[in-house]
Write a structure and sequence with these properties.
Helix content is about 45%, strand content about 10%. It is mainly alpha-helical and about 90 residues long.
């Protein structure tokens, strides 16, 4: 059975987007995950690792933003978050 991975990921992203929108309306002190949310995220992680056995994540890479949040970005946008090693002049 072949899984429609793009459609599947769109459904997951939509569900996560709804949850993120709802949590952004909560007071800052209430934004910590409760047990059910943590269990849901662990189940999502297990599902994604089962679908992507090689853990390539569609070429996406995780980066830490200036605000301290983690974001998954494609190879095209990765340089925005990681400028690479500095270029030193030869002496």
């Amino acid at each position: 059975m072949q899984v429609n991975q793009i459609g599947y990921m769109a459904d997951i992203a939509a569900a996560l987007g709804d949850a993120a929108e709802a949590s952004s309306r909560e007071a800052p002190e209430a934004s910590a995950l409760n047990a059910a949310q943590g269990a849901g995220l662990r189940a999502l992680r297990h599902l994604l690792l089962g679908i992507d056995k090689e853990q390539k994540f569609g070429g996406m890479r995780r980066v830490l933003t200036e605000s301290g949040d983690w974001r998954w970005v494609c190879p095209e946008h990765y340089p925005i978050y990681d400028a690479g090693l500095p270029k030193l002049p030869y002496t």
